[in-house]
What we know:
The chain is mainly alpha-helical. Helices cover about 85% and strands about 0% of the residues. The chain is built from three helices and no strands.
Amino acid sequence: MPRDPRQIQLEIDAARESLAATLDQLTYRTSPKRLRAKGQDAVVRWLQTPVGMAAVGAVGLLVTVVVVQRVRHRND
């Protein structure tokens, strides 16, 4: 039983719309600006946790110790 050309065209149009929607969704998901903003939000949220604050404090202390050591050994 041959298919009606009109029905075939409707199926092609539906597939085209579906593919266009999928492409739009992929474009949104992989947007560099959106990914950067999402990453920045995740980092800010992590830094506001107790573990994040402790990590920042530890890094700050380590940097301070290294700077003091370099200043003290520079005068030797």
